[in-house]
Amino acid sequence: MEKLSGKDKELIRDSWESLGKNKVPHGIVMFTRLFELDPALLTLFSYKTKCGVVPECLSSPEFLEHVTKVMLVIDAAVSHLDDLHTLEDFLLNLGKKHQAVGVKTQSFALVGEALLYMLQCSLGTAYTAALRQAWLNMYSIVVSTMTRGWAKNGEHKSN
């Protein structure tokens, strides 16, 4: 697993300090953007409340639980910046779960784009090119590990 620079860690921690205290509203911004980027992703969320349109989906208790889980994964990554390798098994398993429910690895890039959008909206002028790159660096480590788990699950299913 790759490592982040000390500067990247500092930028990520400082920016997450305020955002991490109010995860769900920031997560809703992120998922709203994700569905703008690819509305077809709504079909992956089949809850009691049909997620045919974004407002219905975003207000569904099941979906809000998913948003919370996603934000907690980000929180865990930020909390483990000095030892991201300790999250490896968790992230591999998360990749397997995403493969099992039909998520394509290309969607991981869109989630990253939505994450950056949320950070930009939430941080305003504090969102700098260096901060963007630090988050991209961390996200690429997380996604790389999830993608390995996704691929392993796909191999397992084809055997």
Bulk shape: globular
Largest sheet: none
| Helical/strand content category | mainly alpha
Helix content: over 70%
Mean pLDDT: 89
Q: What is the rounded distance between the termini?
A: 27 Å
Q: What's the count of strands?
A: 0
Work out the radius of gyration. Answer: 16 Å
Number of helices: 7
Pattern of helices and strands: HHHHHHH
- Taken as a percent bin, the fraction of beta residues is under 5%
Poorly predicted ranges: none
Short description:
By secondary structure, the protein is mainly alpha-helical. It has helices spanning 6-19, 23-37, 54-59, 61-79, 88-100, 106-123, 129-158.
Q: How would you characterize this protein structure?
A:
There is one protein chain. This protein has 159 residues and is an all-alpha fold. Helix content is 72%, strand content 0%. The protein has 7 helices and no strands. It has helices at 6-19, 23-37, 54-59, 61-79, 88-100, 106-123, 129-158. The protein starts with 5 loop residues before the first helix and ends with a helix. The model has no long low-confidence stretch (mean pLDDT 89).
Walk me through the topology.
Elements: H1 6-19, H2 23-37, H3 54-59, H4 61-79, H5 88-100, H6 106-123, H7 129-158
Helix pairs in contact: 1-7, 2-4, 2-6, 5-7, 6-7
Using brief descriptors, characterize the structure shown:
159 residues, mainly alpha, 72% helix, globular
